[in-house]
Q: What sequence folds into this?
C-alpha cells in the first residue's frame, strides 16, 4: 500500500487535527488510557519513547552490577534467588522495549542508541558492587527507590506502559523484600558481615536518592510530562516519600543512614535530609561514573560478539518461510 | 476509577495469589510426601556417590550457563538460559542434599561450620578432586554455537538417564527424576532448536557450530563410561548404567546434527571414567575458584 501523500495542510486536515487533539486531551483529562492505534501528539510519542527506552535500558544495564555476583553467590539458595532476579530484569527489559515498539520504535535501534550513548539509563547502575552485601542493598534501596518512582507509572496515560509497569512493580517489590531479607540475615551474622552491610549502605544511600532525578527547580521536562499524564508526582515529592519509607526500615535493620542532617520533623511527620551532591549526579549521567564505560562495553560485546547468531537465526527463518 | 480496577484485575488473573510474584515461589515441593529413608539393602556410600555424580553435573552446567548472563545474543536468550540454569540448580540442590542424607559429605564438613547447610557444604567446601561431574559439563563454554551443542549433548544424556530413574528403587531419586524429566525435555528442545538454526543458518554459523560439535563430541566418552558405583546401583535397581543409554543418546544427537546439515563427528573410543572418578582438567578448578571463593572466605558465615 503506498504511503499517503504529504499534502500541505489544508483547512480540512487542520480541522481534523484539531478534533483529534481535542479527543486526546479529553482522554487524558478523563484519566483514560491512550492506546497504540490512537492519535497522539508527536511530542507525547517522542517523550514516551525516550522515557520507556531509558527505563528498558536501565533494566538491562541493571543486570550487570548484580550479575557480577551470580557466579560467586555464597550459597546455592542465594544463587537461585539472584539468578531469578536477574532473569526478571531481562524480562522487564523485554516488556518495556515491547511497549516502546507499540509507539513505532525498534528494539535493535534503541539498543544501538544506548551503546552509542545517544540514550541514557539510570545513573545508579554506574556504581560498582564491591561486596555481596551490595546485592542486598540494591534490592532494598535501589529497587525500593525504583518502586517509588514506578508505582505511579501504573497509572500512566499510555496503556501499554501502564500495564507493563504493574507487573514490573509487583516483581520489584518481591526483589525488594528479598534484598531486605538478605540484609537481615547478614545483620544477624558475624561482625564482618554487619560491617559489609553498613559499608554498602554508606555507598548506596546517596546514589539511591539521586535516582529520583534533579530537584524540581531544575527538571525541565516535568511540567509537560505531568500535563500529559506520563508523570504523576514531582521528583522531590517521590524522593521525600522514599526517605520517609526507608528510615524506619533502616532502624529495624540496625544500620545508620550516612546523613547527619537526617531527622524527623515532628510538625510535618516527614524527614528532613541533607543536601545532595548534584554535581556528582551530573558527572555520572554524563558518562564519568565509576563503571559507565564498562557497562556499555559489555552491552556492546553482547551485541557484536553474537551478531553472527542473530544473522543465522534470521537466515534460517527466511529459509523456512521460503524468502531466501 | 473503573479502568484502574480493570488493569489490576488482569494482573490478578496472571498471577493468582500474593505469594507467586516471581520465579521460585509457590512451587510444589518435589519431595512432598516422599519417604526419604534409604531403602533397605541399598549401599549408603554408593547412593551418596551416585547423587553427587548427578548433582555435580547439574551444578557445574548451571554455573557454565550462568556465565552467559548479560552476554547472551538476545534478551529472550538471557531469560531462557537463566531458566535452564535455575532448573539445573534446583536439581543439584536436591541431589546434593540426598548425598548428604546418605552420609556422603567427603571432606566438606571438615571445612564448613555446622551452621552451613549440607548442600552448601558439598557445593562450596569440596575441592575439585572430590567433584564427580563429567568432562562434558566441566568444559568451558566456547562460543554460543559450542554452548548450544554441549547443552544439547548434556541434556540429551541426562534426560535419557532421568527418564529411566523415574523407576528407581530410591524414592528420592525417582521423585527428582520425575520433576527433572519435564525440565530437561524443554532444555533439550531449546538446545536442539538453536543447533538447527545455527547449523543451517549462514556459512559462518555452520562453520562455528561444526567446530563446536567437533570440540564437544570427544567429551561424550566420559558420559557413557560406567563407574563401579553406577554398575552396582544399576544392578540393585537404584541407578542407570550410562552405557545402557549410549545408543539412544547418540542416535538422538546424530539426528539433530543431520537435520542441522552438520557432519556427525566420530563416536569417541571407550575410555575409563575420568570426571566421575574425580580426575578433572584445570577448567574445573577455575570454575570452582569463582563459585566457592566468597563462601570460603567466610567459612562460619550464614547468608
A:
Amino acid at each position: 500500500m503506498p504511503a499517503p501523500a504529504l499534502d500541505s495542510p489544508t483547512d480540512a486536515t487542520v480541522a481534523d487535527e484539531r478534533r483529534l487533539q481535542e479527543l486526546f486531551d479529553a482522554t487524558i483529562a478523563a484519566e483514560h488510557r491512550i492506546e497504540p492505534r490512537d492519535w497522539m501528539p508527536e511530542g507525547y510519542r517522542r517523550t514516551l519513547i525516550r522515557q520507556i527506552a531509558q527505563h528498558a535500558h536501565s533494566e538491562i544495564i541493571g543486570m550487570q552490577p548484580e550479575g557480577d555476583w551470580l557466579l560467586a553467590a555464597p550459597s546455592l539458595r542465594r544463587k537461585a534467588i539472584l539468578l531469578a532476579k536477574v532473569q526478571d530484569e531481562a524480562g522487564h527489559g523485554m516488556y518495556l522495549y515491547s511497549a516502546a515498539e507499540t509507539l513505532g520504535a525498534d528494539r535493535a535501534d534503541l539498543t544501538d542508541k544506548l551503546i552509542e550513548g545517544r540514550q541514557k539509563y539510570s545513573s545508579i547502575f554506574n556504581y560498582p558492587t564491591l561486596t555481596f552485601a551490595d546485592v542486598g542493598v540494591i534490592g532494598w534501596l535501589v529497587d525500593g527507590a525504583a518502586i517509588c518512582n514506578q508505582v505511579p507509572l501504573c497509572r500512566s496515560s499510555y496503556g501499554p506502559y501502564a500495564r507493563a509497569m504493574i507487573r514490573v512493580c509487583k516483581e520489584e517489590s518481591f526483589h525488594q523484600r528479598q534484598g531486605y531479607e538478605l540484609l537481615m540475615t547478614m545483620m544477624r551474622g558475624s561482625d564482618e558481615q554487619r560491617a559489609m552491610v553498613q559499608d554498602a549502605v554508606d555507598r548506596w544511600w546517596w546514589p539511591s536518592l539521586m535516582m529520583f532525578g534533579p530537584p524540581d527547580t531544575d527538571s525541565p521536562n516535568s511540567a509537560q510530562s505531568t500535563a500529559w499524564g506520563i508523570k504523576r508526582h514531582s521528583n522531590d515529592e517521590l524522593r521525600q516519600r522514599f526517605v520517609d519509607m526507608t528510615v524506619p526500615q533502616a532502624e529495624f535493620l540496625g544500620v545508620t543512614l550516612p546523613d547527619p542532617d537526617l531527622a524527623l520533623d515532628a510538625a510535618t511527620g516527614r524527614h528532613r535530609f541533607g543536601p545532595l551532591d548534584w554535581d556528582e549526579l551530573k558527572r555520572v549521567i554524563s558518562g564519568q561514573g565509576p563503571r559507565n564505560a564498562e557497562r556499555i562495553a559489555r552491552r556492546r560485546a553482547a551485541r557484536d560478539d553474537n551478531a553472527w547468531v542473530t544473522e543465522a537465526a534470521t537466515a534460517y527463518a527466511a529459509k523456512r518461510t521460503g524468502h531466501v | 476509577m473503573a479502568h484502574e480496577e480493570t488493569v489490576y484485575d488482569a494482573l490478578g488473573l496472571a498471577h493468582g495469589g500474593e505469594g507467586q510474584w516471581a520465579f521460585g515461589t509457590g512451587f510444589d515441593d518435589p519431595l512432598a510426601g516422599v519417604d526419604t529413608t534409604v531403602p533397605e539393602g541399598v549401599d549408603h556410600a554408593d547412593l551418596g556417590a551416585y547423587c553427587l555424580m548427578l548433582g555435580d553435573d547439574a551444578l557445574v552446567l548451571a554455573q557454565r550457563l550462568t556465565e552467559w548472563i548479560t552476554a547472551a545474543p538476545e534478551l529472550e536468550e538471557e531469560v531462557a538460559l537463566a531458566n535452564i540454569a535455575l532448573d539445573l540448580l534446583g536439581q543439584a540442590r536436591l541431589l546434593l542434599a540426598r548425598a548428604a542424607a546418605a552420609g556422603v559429605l567427603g571432606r566438606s564438613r571438615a571445612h564448613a561450620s555446622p551452621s552451613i547447610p549440607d548442600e552448601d557444604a558439598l557445593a562450596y567446601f569440596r575441592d575439585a578432586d572430590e567433584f564427580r561431574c563429567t568432562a562434558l559439563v566441566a568444559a568451558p563454554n566456547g562460543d554460543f554455537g559450542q554452548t548450544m551443542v554441549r547443552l544439547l549433548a548434556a541434556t540429551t544424556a541426562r534426560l535419557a538417564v532421568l527418564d529411566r530413574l523415574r523407576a528407581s528403587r530410591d524414592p528420592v531419586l525417582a521423585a527428582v527424576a520425575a520433576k527433572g524429566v519435564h525440565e530437561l525435555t524443554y532444555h533439550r528442545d531449546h538446545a536442539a532448536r538453536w543447533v538447527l538454526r545455527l547449523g543451517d543458518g549462514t556459512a559462518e554459523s555452520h562453520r562455528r557450530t561444526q567446530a563446536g560439535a567437533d570440540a564437544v563430541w570427544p567429551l561424550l566418552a566420559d558420559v557413557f563410561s560406567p563407574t563401579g558405583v553406577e554398575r552396582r546401583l544399576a544392578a540393585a535397581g537404584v541407578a542407570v548404567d550410562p552405557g545402557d543409554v549410549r545408543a539412544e543418546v547418540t542416535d538422538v544427537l546424530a539426528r539433530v546434527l543431520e537435520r542441522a546439515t552438520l557432519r556427525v563427528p566420530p563416536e569417541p573410543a571407550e575410555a575409563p571414567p575420568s570426571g566421575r572418578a574425580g580426575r578433572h582438567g584445570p577448567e574445573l578448578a577455575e570454575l570452582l575458584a569463582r563459585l566457592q571463593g566468597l563462601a570460603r572466605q567466610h567459612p562460619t558465615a550464614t547468608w
User: Anything to note?
Assistant: Chain A touches chain B through 65 residues (CB under 8 Å).
